[in-house]
């Protein structure tokens, strides 16, 4: 069987913007299957750290033990040390020693008359080394943050527990999902029919432009005051609602514009929960995909001499 490499596409990626928790990039020279695989891998296959085991000693709050354990699991934890840990599924559930897990304790009692908030800031890291102690709730670095609410305590109510944070992936539980959102859109190309636009009155042109629903402060098209033509300003602001197409058809001007979705260029937006930087999420997803494909190639080659190259 001949290698297919000479005929394969070579995907390219260009970063448009990058902040602490958000990344926008363009994936090109590929197809929808690859874009979908990358998106789903970022959500389900990138490992993070989250509370997994909870031992409740005292709980006199209004919430039962299971509710509190679930809320603890959804507290995002900084996961820069995740590469030095083993997956929870690969370790003994009773083993709370590093690298299997990071121990935490929480003990809060309301001795006052007013309701008392129990938040992520009440989680105390009991790690034995710097790597363990680096695993803390993501909002701890923000001194103005009150923390993520876990429960409210009435007078004389108390919560005392210990828990273990472990490494896992979103495929096993959503608490290990590192992303707040991962979306992509097809890059649009908008072709305006200038000849048909020329038959519109000024009022009709303005009404047609208004029919192009756009993102706030990002118009899709605008009127060229010098030529009277309609120019495309920001094709990517188009949201594919086809309102402009409906307006044209209702006013007997069908074909004023054609919107074509590029089938090989995708605009990605990745927002992190804060547990990992967005660029790390993207690179980790690519590494995961590469590892899976390499494993497949090795398995195929076991049945012949370089069946896949």
Automatic annotation (TrEMBL):
<dbReference type="InterPro" id="IPR011263">
    <property type="entry name" value="DNA-dir_RNA_pol_RpoA/D/Rpb3"/>
</dbReference>
<comment type="similarity">
    <text>Belongs to the archaeal Rpo3/eukaryotic RPB3 RNA polymerase subunit family.</text>
</comment>
<dbReference type="InterPro" id="IPR036603">
    <property type="entry name" value="RBP11-like"/>
</dbReference>
<dbReference type="Pfam" id="PF01193">
    <property type="entry name" value="RNA_pol_L"/>
</dbReference>
<dbReference type="GO" id="GO:0006366">
    <property type="term" value="P:transcription by RNA polymerase II"/>
</dbReference>
<keyword id="KW-0240">DNA-directed RNA polymerase</keyword>
<dbReference type="GO" id="GO:0003899">
    <property type="term" value="F:DNA-directed RNA polymerase activity"/>
</dbReference>
<dbReference type="GO" id="GO:0003677">
    <property type="term" value="F:DNA binding"/>
</dbReference>
<dbReference type="InterPro" id="IPR001514">
    <property type="entry name" value="DNA-dir_RNA_pol_30-40kDasu_CS"/>
</dbReference>
<dbReference type="Pfam" id="PF01000">
    <property type="entry name" value="RNA_pol_A_bac"/>
</dbReference>
<feature type="domain" description="DNA-directed RNA polymerase RpoA/D/Rpb3-type">
    <location>
        <begin position="22"/>
        <end position="299"/>
    </location>
</feature>
<dbReference type="InterPro" id="IPR036643">
    <property type="entry name" value="RNApol_insert_sf"/>
</dbReference>
<keyword id="KW-0804">Transcription</keyword>
<dbReference type="InterPro" id="IPR022842">
    <property type="entry name" value="RNAP_Rpo3/Rpb3/RPAC1"/>
</dbReference>
<dbReference type="InterPro" id="IPR011262">
    <property type="entry name" value="DNA-dir_RNA_pol_insert"/>
</dbReference>
<protein>
    <recommendedName>
        <fullName>DNA-directed RNA polymerase RpoA/D/Rpb3-type domain-containing protein</fullName>
    </recommendedName>
</protein>
<dbReference type="GO" id="GO:0005665">
    <property type="term" value="C:RNA polymerase II, core complex"/>
</dbReference>
<dbReference type="InterPro" id="IPR050518">
    <property type="entry name" value="Rpo3/RPB3_RNA_Pol_subunit"/>
</dbReference>
<dbReference type="GO" id="GO:0046983">
    <property type="term" value="F:protein dimerization activity"/>
</dbReference>
């Amino acid at each position: 069987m001949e290698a297919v490499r000479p005929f394969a596409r070579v995907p390219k990626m260009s970063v448009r913007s990058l902040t602490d928790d958000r990344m926008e990039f363009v994936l090109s020279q590929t197809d929808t299957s690859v874009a979908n695989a990358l998106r789903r891998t970022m959500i389900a296959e990138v490992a993070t750290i989250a509370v997994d085991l909870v031992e409740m000693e005292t709980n006199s709050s209004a919430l039962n033990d299971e509710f509190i354990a679930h809320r603890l699991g959804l507290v995002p934890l900084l996961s820069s040390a995740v590469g030095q840990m083993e997956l929870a599924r690969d370790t003994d559930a009773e083993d709370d020693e590093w690298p299997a897990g990071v121990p935490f304790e929480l003990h809060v009692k309301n001795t006052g008359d007013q309701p008392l908030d129990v938040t992520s800031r009440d989680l105390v890291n009991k790690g034995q080394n710097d790597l363990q102690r680096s695993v803390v709730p993501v909002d701890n670095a923000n001194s103005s943050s009150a923390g993520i609410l876990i429960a409210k305590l009435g007078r004389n109510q108390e919560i005392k527990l210990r828990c273990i944070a472990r490494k896992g992936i979103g495929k096993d539980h959503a608490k290990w999902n590192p992303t707040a959102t991962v979306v992509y859109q097809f890059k649009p190309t908008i072709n305006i029919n200038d000849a048909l636009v020329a038959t519109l009155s000024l009022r009709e042109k303005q009404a047609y432009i208004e029919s192009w629903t756009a993102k706030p402060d990002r118009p899709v098209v605008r009127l060229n005051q010098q030529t009277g033509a309609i120019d495309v300003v920001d094709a990517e602001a188009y949201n594919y609602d086809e309102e402009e197409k409906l307006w044209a058809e209702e006013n007997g001007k069908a074909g004023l514009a054609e919107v074509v979705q590029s089938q090989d260029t995708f605009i990605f937006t990745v927002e992190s929960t804060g547990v990992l930087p967005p660029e790390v999420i993207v690179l980790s997803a690519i590494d995961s995909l590469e590892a899976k494909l390499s494993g497949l190639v090795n398995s195929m080659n076991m049945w012949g001499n370089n069946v896949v190259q």
